[in-house]
Amino acid sequence: MPPGPADKCDLHTTEESFYRVANLLQDYGDVTCLHSAIRQSSSYLVNHPDHVKHILVNNHQNYNKGPGFERVKMLLGNGIIVSDGVFWRRQRRMIQPGFNRQIIARMMDDVKACNLRLLDRWLEKAKDSAVIDITEEMSELSLEIILRVLLAGDYDRILEEHGENPFSILTQDPSRDMKLVLKFRALSGIIQDTINRRREHPTDSEDFLSSFMAAEDKDTGEPMTDKELIDEVMTLIVAGHETSAGTLNWAWYLLTQNPVEMQKLVEEIDAVGFENIPEFEQLESLPYAKQILDETLRMYPPVWLFTRKAIHDDKIGDYDIPAGTDIFITPYYLHRHPDFWDAPEAFRPERFTEEAIKARHKFVHIPFSAGPRRCIGDYFAMVEMQMHLAMVVKKISLELVAPQTLELAPDVNLRSKQPFEMRLSLRQ
Asked: What is the distance between the alpha carbons of residues 170 and 142, in angstroms, rounded to a whole number?
């Protein structure tokens, strides 16, 4: 058994657990045994990339979702983030084709349009050096983007029918308590209505909902049930919104605090030569923008703690893992492991050049998890965020309004406790 504290200890996605994890890793190392006060089985806190690889990749079939996902399931239903086993594999196979590169490339028109509307507003504000809440702005932008690539023209119909965006509760209420869960699940009726309309009046929309509705199980030829469709759509709304919103919020904070890196990004974008909007193919000519996002995800991964549960006995290193053991993996601290990262608290996008990535342990950077359960939307999220940075930096400069103290809010997602206020100005 690994070393660990004698007192009872349970970890949750809370501020108290966040700082306790730091102390446990310091006191006991990369594998810590915790004795639960609420469950019969012990828990292991695992923070070494070799062990992470074994659990998430090499022997992934021995591990199901662990504790903590009950709360997520109440919000999302049984979508691919929380489902397990045969059902999860079926859903993953059916959903995967909708995330191929060609479809995402065509979705970039919606991403550009959303950013153009934001940019028009910001350009007017920049003339007067206005101050904006970048945290709120990124949340609203990311929500609009994911809803448009999910629902295409139905999104505008929903806005017209409701007089507002009914899904905006996700941006207005950062808590994920039962009140929010009930409000959000009530919105599933809007998705059901959209599914019914599309069956009555088929469209040629190339969006995620159309892809999901057209998908068939390769073994049975059966499509998803309405409940399955709704759960996957609701999952994508939340996951697609929160990942991008949080990462862009942190990226702007880091860039405004690191002017050298900001200037390198400006120079890269200017060198590509687009006038207002880069073409999708031009994003490949913006490697430094991607490095900035990768480094942001290293420092502030959207999910700072997640779990697995051992189905059968297993072993990592010198330690036995009895069946039923809960495994806690913490990307936030893995991404700061002093054995694998030099000056881990420093913002250094050059950590993610091709050469640096090849020289480093592959599983010491897992912002989207790893293995078969790696986030299905990771590629879309990255190109969506690259497009945003390129379009904004081309025209506008941002400056953090000081003083602002950085405080973390380590809930299910890792947020900043206070919003970041930033002053806009026109780039000369």
From this structure: 11
What range defines the domain where residue 314 resides? 15-426
| Helical (H) or strand (E) element with 52 | helix 49-53
Neighbours of 184 (CB within 10 A): 21
CA-nearest of 239, 241, 347 to 300 is 347
**326-329 and 43-46 as β-strands: parallel, antiparallel, unpaired?**
parallel
Phi-psi map region of 12: left, alpha, beta (phi>0 left; psi -120 to 50 alpha)? beta
Residue 165 lies in a domain: yes
Q: In whole angstroms, give the CA distance from residue 201 to residue 399.
A: 48
Round to whole Å and give the CA distance between 132 and 123.
Answer: 12
- Tokens representing 7? 């007192």
The C-alpha angle 192, 195, 197, rounded to 5 degrees, equals 110
Return d(Cα 181, Cα 168) in angstroms, integer: 13
Q: How many other CB atoms sit within 10 Å of the CB of residue 343? A: 9
Contact 289, 265 (CB under 8 A): yes
Q: Percentages helix, strand, coil for the chain, rounded to the nearest 5?
A: 55, 10, 30
Residue 10 lies in a domain: no
- pTM, full prediction: 0.96
Give 228's contacts (C-beta < 8 A, 6+ positions apart): 78, 91
- Cα distance between residue 301 and residue 187, in whole Å: 28
CA distances from residue 243 to 138, 246, 391 in whole angstroms, order as listed: 11, 6, 19
- Comparing C-alpha atoms, which of 335, 356, 331 is closest to residue 344? 335
User: Taking the CA atoms of the chain, what radius of gyration do you get in angstroms?
Assistant: 22
Q: Each residue of 305-349: pLDDT tens digit? A: 999 999 999 999 999 999 999 999 999 999 999 999 999 999 999
CATH code, domain with 309: 1.10.630.10
380 located within any domain: yes
Whether 2 is in a domain gets the answer no
| Tens-place pLDDT, residues 139-159 | 999 999 999 999 999 999 999
Strand (E) positions, 89-214? 131-133
Query: Six-digit token pair at 383?
Result: 């190109």
Question: pLDDT tens, 218-276?
Answer: 999 999 999 999 999 999 999 999 999 999 999 999 999 999 999 999 999 999 988 88
Q: Which residues, 6 or more positions from 115, have their beta carbon under 8 angstroms from its beta carbon?
A: 141, 387, 388, 391, 392
User: What is the total count of domains within the chain?
Assistant: 1
